[in-house]
Class I SAM-dependent methyltransferase
Amino acid sequence: MTSSHVDIPWDDARAANLANWNDRVPLHEEAYALAAFDDPAYLSDVVREDLAALAPYVPSGAIAGLDVCHLQCHIGTDTVSLARAGARVTGVDFSALALESATRLAERVGADVRWVETDVLDARAAVNGDFDLVYTSIGTITWLSDLARWGEQVAALLRPGGTFFIRDGHPALYALDEEAPDLRLRYAYFGDGRAQTWDDDSTYAGDGKVAHTRTYEWPHPLSEIVMALVGAGLRLEFLGEGTVLPWRFSERMVEVEGGWAWPEDERALVPCTYTIVARKPA
C-alpha cells in the first residue's frame, strides 16, 4: 500500500472514491456472508455492539419505534440490522450500486428500509423527515474532507432531543504503519486540508481485487471530530475508546472476542476505536 498527500478538488476525489466503492459492492456481497440474514434473528456484529453502547442514551434502552437515519450505509447489512431491531430506518449512501445491493438484501429478508442516494455532505437536502437517531459506524468519515459540514448535516437531520452515534476507527490507529513489525507511526494524525491518496487493489473484506485502485481520504484528529459536532450545536453525552476492531487493520493483529486487536502486550498502548454519543438540545 502506498500513500502521499495531494491537493485535489472534492469532486475529483469523490469520483475516484465512488469508482472504488462501486468495485467493492460485488466483492462485499460475497465477503459479508449475506446468507446469514436468512435467519430472522440475525444482526450484524457491528450493530449488536453498537446497540449495547446506545442503550443508555435512547428511550427504554432500545431503538424499537425510533426514526433512524444511517449515513454511509454501503450495502445495507447494518441498516437492515437496525430495522430488525425495530427502528424505522432510512439508509443513505453515495453509491447507486451499493444501494441496489442493499435493496435486494432488504427485499429478500423482508426488511422495510427507505434508501436515499446522496453524498453525506448533502444529506439534509436529500433526505425527508427528522430523526430520533442518526447513526454512523465503522469506516466512514475519513472519506470526508469537510467535517464542519458533516456535523451540520447530522445536526440538521436530528429532531430536537435526538441522538447521534458514531463508532469508527481511531485516528491514532490510522496514523500507525500497518506493515511495521511493531507499533510505529507512519501517517499524519493531524490534517492540513490535503488528501491522503492511496493506490491499493485490495479491500478490507475478502480476497477480491478492485479495478479502480486510487482513493482519497482525509486524516481527522479526535479533537476535530468532537468539535465538528459541538460546533454544529450538539451536546456531547459520551466519548469512549476501545481496543478491538471489527476488521484486521494489520497482519500483526490477533483475533479476539468481537474482532481483532494488537497482541496482548501492546493492547493498552494505543486505541483502535472511538465511540461518540451526542444529543441535539430539545
About this structure: The two ends are 46 Å apart (CA to CA).
